[in-house]
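User: We ran a pulldown and think these components assemble together. Before we commit to crystallization trials, I'd like a predicted model of the whole complex to look at. Sequences follow.
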Amino acid sequence: MTLSELARVVRSKNAGPTLLTIDVLFADEDTFVRGRAGLTVEAVAARYGRAVADVSVISVSAAKAVKIVLPREVPAGAPGDRDVYGAQQHVPLLGLSV
Amino acid sequence: MSSFARLAANWSGPEAPLRVLAASGQLGLGIPEKAFDAGVERKPHVIAADMGSIDPGPVYLGSGKMAASPSMARRDLEMVLKAARGLDVPLLIGSAGTAGGAPHLAAVEALLRSVAADWGLRFRLATIGADVPKDIVQAADSAGRLTPIGPMQADIEGSLAIVGQMGQRAFAKALEAGADVILAGRACDTAPFAVVPVLLGYPKGPSVHMAKILECTSLCCEPGGRDAMLATLEGDGFTLESMNPVRAATPLSVAAHALYEQSEPNRVFEPEGHVELSDATYEALDERRVLVKGAVWHSSAKPSVKVEAARFVGHRVAIMAAVADPGFIAVSDKILQGVQDGVAELITSTSDAPWGLTFRRYGIDGIMDWPTPPDTPPREIFILGECVAPDAETARAVAAAARQQLLHFGFPGRLCTGGNLAFPVTPPELDAGPAYAFSLYHILQLDTWEAHDALFPVTFHEI
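Assistant: Here's a predicted model for the assembly, 561 residues in total across the polymer chains.
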């Protein structure tokens, strides 16, 4: 199963102009546990072509959510930036096998 | 007696229900009227709104302009001001005019004054500046008290405008000195929502947690939206309810919202300390309301202020073109590199007058560099060229040269010798005006609260 089939929400957004945060929200405990197991730092880094050291993954039980934080390659809105709000950076995760 | 003094004088204590109405998380972009009116009918004790954000990018701070149109900003200000004066309750607005710098604050103050004049409203207004002098940032940098948040290269000297995010202290000072309405420059999103509960004795942890969720109004609901949101603080918790009956606050939707736009899911930092959310609980009171408890506030010994700045990076011209030819699309990366090189031969880019030209290929890598190529090549691609140069004339010259080379660039197996590009509009180069970049996104640590308070001066105006 892919993450897009398992998760209820997969969203990305800036956390300030230098960081990108991706929240993966699940509908219940079972899908949360399964999704969390697949969202390893290594798997996320591979999906984005980034170094493992750049990626942080934090799970939040109360929200049945997994949060991913990546540094932006270009600060938001600077010349060469391609996604000022960072709202379309979630897509590489959708096909992750979980 | 000010609206806050009257509220404080009659307040029995933090066991009484205190209602905070969040009018908007983006004042000036159109408050949904029906839900706001429903909120006003609940007789809130305070009305608050956030008007700014760093999300739209450096252009607003750099240019001194606001993202909202003046006419829509005026409409929203009229709604909240009439409601707050009608109920005689405090009105608190944070991050005036998107970026919250001096020109933004002045523009919103002028709109507020014109609304007040139209309706004959009289009140005590406090405006709070948020501009940070360069020498203070430079001194902090020299002393090792300036820390970047994420990858950000500081350019203090080159900054056109520097603002700091104020916390609750300046709002509290203004309220205690008799302000009915507060219009603040750049502020923490939470500050205008949390300050009145804290001053009335409600515990700071839940007050700031409430503010963090409430500042986006009904975005914390299922389905999320922009409608006004009501928080009722009582004892050590608070209840959230959307003023649009189709939007439901559920334990999951509210807990998930606490993550939104945050790099740390369990902690929210402010100049005066941070709130810890690890032990927060979310309990459904019914299908549309959630009771939240358990956030804990930790005060810090010394103030730390988040500072933001923007610098001018040049004039920007955009080139817009589209391609369907499969031969072109297959080698488009090489063609675009060839165009870069060809333009550089025509127009010299020197360290004194550097120009930059970048291309995004929508359909291939418009949004990101994908780790893997697509399974099948796209049928069409859109090419957006971005040229930034020290002056407008150079930017236009580079863009025109790039467009022409791209149109007629030869490549192996080329069939489309009439031209490589479908232009969607003419001229295909659009002058986008001055371009900016963030030049500070840092934590500025200060030694004393006096130094902190001096950054956020409060000015009173009798309207």
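The interface with chain B takes residues 9, 13-19, 21, 23, 25, 46-49, 58, 60, 62-65, 67, 69, 71-72, 75-80, 82-85, 88-89, 91-92 of chain A (CB under 8 Å). That may be worth checking against your pulldown data before setting up trials.

User: Thanks, that helps.
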